[in-house]
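Example 4.3 (complexes with small molecules)
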Amino acid sequence: MAAVTFDQIGKIYPDGFSAVRNFNLEIEDGEFMVLVGPSGCGKTTALRMVAGLEDISHGVLRIGERVVNHVPSRDRDIAMVFQSYALYPHLTVYENIAFGLRLKKVPKGEIDQRVHEAARVLDLEPHLKRKPRALSGGQRQRVAMGRAIVRRPQAFLMDEPLSNLDAKLRVQTRAEISKLQHSLGTTTIYVTHDQVEAMTMGDRVAVMRKGELQQVATPQTLYDRPVNLFVGGFIGSPAMNMIEATLQRSNGNFEAVAGTQRVTVGQETLSQRPGLTAFEGREVILGIRPEDIEDAALEPDRAGDARLHGKLVLREALGSEIMAHFTIDAPPARTEETAELAEDVGAELTEDAPQESLLIGRFGARSRVTEGDTIEAAVDTRALHFFDPETGLGIYEGSNTKGAG
Amino acid sequence: MAEVAAQQPIVVPDPSDTVAARIIRIAGKLPVNLFLAAIGLVWLVPTIGLFLSSLLAPNDFNSKGWWQIISKPSVATWANYSNLWNSTDIPHSLVTTAEIAIGGTVFPILVAALAGYAFAWLEFPGRDWLFVVVIGLLVVPLQMALIPMFSLYNKLGIFDTVISLVLFHTAFGLPFAIFLLRNFFIGIPKDILESARIDGASEVRIFSRLILPLGLPAIASLAIFQFLWTWNDLLVALTFARNTQPVTVAIYTNLRQFGSNIDIIAPASFLSLVIPLAVFFAFQRYFVQGLLAGSVK
Ligand SMILES: Nc1ncnc2c1ncn2[C@@H]1O[C@H](COP(=O)(O)OP(=O)(O)O)[C@@H](O)[C@H]1O
Ligand SMILES: [Mg+2]
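Answer. The structure with magnesium ion bound is encoded below.
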């Protein structure tokens, strides 16, 4: 097992497209690192450079102490699980798993023992004599895993290994991969575009956008202190609501004013973000996570200075909670990042009237709001997010607006 | 991971396996099968005629009809075959033909498989242009090369040898073989090859452990075409063979020498027809569909 280090890595494809730029990332020995980002942001490219399947255009890549820029795949001692699984169709499950060991001329007895061990862990023992075409999707996925673990490599590379499974199996397998990785302790780089996978599986998560690394942090830090608008909008589901607001001081309190809406900035938020004071009287982008918005009727205790007034346009009852889509008369945040994020989830920003924003709140299941109602929503002001509209960066420390992590 | 195993399908007896279901299935296909059998029979008439003729004694040939072979008592005799075996050079010609056909099949396919792999999966400068040239060679008629090759073989001193014929067939079999195999190999999912590379396979291993077994259907069809072509070739053999006669040339020579020596020509033709047929059936089982199923997705 070994650390994997990206040092100023860049990738320019032969057609001139720069898919990965200035990529710096240190993955510790034994760490589970998730690369996440919208489709096309360069995750696979980054992973394939580690695997030796793509030439590295710039920078230095190390596995352990060794610089591997020019080491061929077969000598890198890594194992990869492909999105398609890439099983050898003419070989049985046993032969698929044993393939790498046979190439390394491991003694027969040891191969046999290691294949059976892997098959036992992955529950593949009854299928060892079958060909891949006779297996279900979940079983094929486990054969691909078996082929990787049996080699006991320096690192596992996984490229969206769960994307071909149905939703239920995906959740199950997600937990199993995490468990397996923890018991083996092998350094793992896991690529996904699914932020739920990223948050649940990663020791740390690296968020990418357009070939550039945005933030590397633990899942909780990414959620609490996103370094910029993009990370703030990408992490969390449903995505963070973002509106344009002006910061004002009244009665000694900070207030974010957006249209006719006023949201007092809670003490907790303020102490987390001392940099906000410098934005007094200036425009900011206010981010409110849907889970911090509740039906005011269910939150009678919360002070009146943290209310939003709007009109419910869609009520999605999920049983355990209600997704309340409502419009307020405040301008939505319109930046390159928010446009890209909207595109990533297939929404179109242009449908909003310029002075109206569409917000989503996660209301308690007992909420009685119905479509067409004028509603009052209570905002938990302890965890408001603020971003500088010019740079898109989160507003945290004094003059230095860099985020944590 | 016990939970996942619980997802396996429960085995229920297949309802389509009952006797009644099978009868219905066969009956449903009956008209189509009858039609195909009729076509097959029509196609076989010349071959059957040839076989029956080969069973008639030379002096019976003009006086007896084919029905007398299957009537009792039968006039059929294997005398033509034993005569062919013992007192003509046809057996020797068959061996020569086999040498030419096997060499002329194995060599081009071996070279074409390597070339096809390189054209499909290795990166080298000028690869695509070189492939265009190969495709261009497809349209060169072999008749054009007969005279130049004739003088070249004379200079090299390999005129009238099995080698010369094998080389010629190899050269003219290669463009199509490379074209076919390259196009088949490129359909092998890239992920599989990359996976093997990461698993520690060298190019040679990838070729022998993945490309060849996965390319088997294409290689088998190619082998049959090339084998039939080289086996049945008359033109090239007539040009380059004087004494090392393959069976086609031998039959042809017999035709010219005597006129009505049907007792040699019929059994010899039938023999030279049966052997490639046997080869076809031997390779037929490699024409399997869906060899790649289950590898990706
Ligand atoms: N072989 C290639 N040549 C040119 N551009 C490529 C190639 N492969 C990928 N790209 C481009 O690089 C970008 C990143 O691709 P990729 O790493 O596959 O993204 P992701 O895995 O994050 O979805 C995409 O815009 C894609 O179009
Ligand atoms: Mg990808």
